[in-house]
Design a protein that fits this description.
Elements lengths: L17 H16 L4 E2 L5 E3 H7 L5 H6 L2 E3 L5 E4 L4 H10 L10 E10 L11 E10 L4 H17 L5 E7 L6 H13 L5 H9 L2 H4 L4 H6 L12 H16 L5 E2 L11 E9 L7 E7 L3 H4 L7 E7 H11 L11 E5 L2 H16 L4 E3 L6 H11 L3 E5 L1 H5 L2 E6 L5 E5 L3 H9 L1
Parallel strand pairs: 1-5, 7-8, 12-13, 12-14
Antiparallel strand pairs: 2-4, 3-4, 5-6, 6-11, 7-9, 9-10, 10-11, 14-15, 15-16
Helix pairs in contact: 1-5, 1-12, 5-10
Length: 420
């Protein structure tokens, strides 16, 4: 037993369950790669101000959940609590927006960190795959990203998820709504911290999950009633494009999301089989974020999907993923000569792209065959001194139990043929 354990609110990802996480990441990434999104990777920590400006100083993420620290050189850094601000910062720093091909379409995968109270589906360290389309204001981009996320989930076999959709307006119409909402909130019985939040960003109060707060918000003014004509037309086109693609969604006028940078289109993917932590992913348009962090005006849209929560959703639905075998061939040598011969054959198989493993540690036949069974290999190669003297190895089909002698110099081609 180790003296150390994983920190509270984190988890270790180990085989065989880790294969599910890899499959989920690949399923989410595939439609993005097929749609012109290039891979980006950013540091695990950034300047604190990047998140304070972009995510919002009134958000729980910045005020309560961010892991912030000071370096020996006096820099104020934070472990990244989300991906969008980092990706946009990287794109601006590399001047990708000046290369004449907008939107800049990027996807990413990585770990994120928030100091939250751990519970099922909510961790202090979690994994996401995200996508950002930077530098274009087009309803088709918003629709594209929603459709691609839906495609990814369905390719995994996930069915019991819902897409919630709303519009948060823009700099023209949101201020009018903001004043109306603030006026309404001042008349409620709210604690000082919530009232302070209402002064900074009243929309954040709509996202408050406490039942006593939600009860008072029943008659709150709805942003949809304050949208300007341009935002109404934009949102309607997003809805029409999604509908035409056969993607079902639900209009949710109270959907806000937890980050301050969203404008216009906002959406969330929820799964009712996950209890209180029902969101498996979400995103929206963030037309002003670039300017917030010191860049030029670059209207953009994106999302992030939780890998951990997607795995939990699959398990809640009882979906078994078809995972590739980690090992297709397992070699069992009996004797020193056989070790050298079979190790060379395993190396050849690997060069051909065939997953092959080897019985290490000079195990006896019984112990080595147990290892072969545990590996999940379809075929096992067994060879001893007598086999090699006859110029053959024994090839065993682990499913049928059939065993046959195959010439040593033909075993690689035979396995390539069987597994090809």
């Amino acid at each position: 037993m180790s003296t150390f354990q994983a920190p509270k609110g984190t988890y270790d990802l180990l085989p065989p369950r880790s294969a599910k996480f890899l499959a989920v990441r690949e399923a989410i990434a595939t439609p993005l790669r097929d749609s012109g999104y290039g891979y980006v990777e950013t540091p695990g920590f950034e300047n604190v101000e990047l998140f304070a400006r972009g995510v919002g100083e009134s958000t729980d993420i910045v005020t309560k959940e961010m892991y912030a620290f000071e370096t020996k050189g006096g820099d104020r850094l934070a472990l990244r609590p989300e991906g969008t601000a980092s990706v946009l910062r990287a794109a601006l720093e590399a001047n990708l927006h000046r290369q004449g091909n907008l939107p800049v379409k990027l996807w990413y995968s990585g770990s994120y960190y928030r100091y939250e109270q751990p519970q099922a589906g909510r961790y202090r360290h979690f994994s996401q795959v995200g996508a950002e389309a930077i530098g274009a204001e087009d309803p088709a981009l918003d629709a594209e990203l929603i459709i691609l996320a839906d495609q990814a989930y369905r390719s995994l076999g996930l069915r019991q998820f819902r897409i919630l959709l709303n519009s948060l307006g823009d700099k023209e119409c949101r201020p009018v709504y903001r004043e109306a909402l603030q006026s309404f909130l001042r008349g409620l019985d709210l604690d000082e911290e919530t009232l302070r939040r209402a002064d900074i960003n009243p929309l954040r109060v709509l996202d408050d999950k406490r039942p006593d707060v939600q009860k008072q918000l029943t008659d709150a003014p709805m942003l949809r009633d304050y949208l300007c004509d341009a935002c109404k037309a934009y949102h309607e086109e997003v809805r029409e494009l999604i509908t035409a693609a056969g993607v079902a969604f639900e209009d949710d006028p109270k959907l806000v999301r937890g980050l301050d940078y969203y404008t216009r289109t906002t959406f969330e993917f929820v799964h009712d089989g996950l209890g209180s932590q029902s969101a498996v992913g979400g995103g929206g348009r963030y037309d002003g974020l670039s300017e917030m962090i010191g860049g030029p005006a670059l209207p953009s849209v994106g999302w992030a999907l939780g890998v951990d929560r997607t795995v939990l959703a699959l398990e809640a639905e009882g979906v078994e993923l078809e995972l590739p075998a980690s090992t297709s061939v397992f070699a069992v040598p009996l004797g020193e000569q056989a070790r050298r011969v079979l190790f060379a054959k395993v190396t050849e198989l690997r060069k051909l792209g065939i997953a092959a493993d080897f019985s290490y540690g000079a195990k006896g036949l019984k112990g080595a065959m147990k290892s072969a069974n545990r590996s999940g290999a379809r075929y096992t190669i067994v060879a001893g001194e007598r086999d090699l003297a006859e110029g053959v190895v024994q090839l065993k089909d682990m499913e049928s139990g059939e065993q046959s002698a195959v010439p040593v110099n033909e075993i690689v081609a035979e396995l390539e043929s069987k597994l090809g």
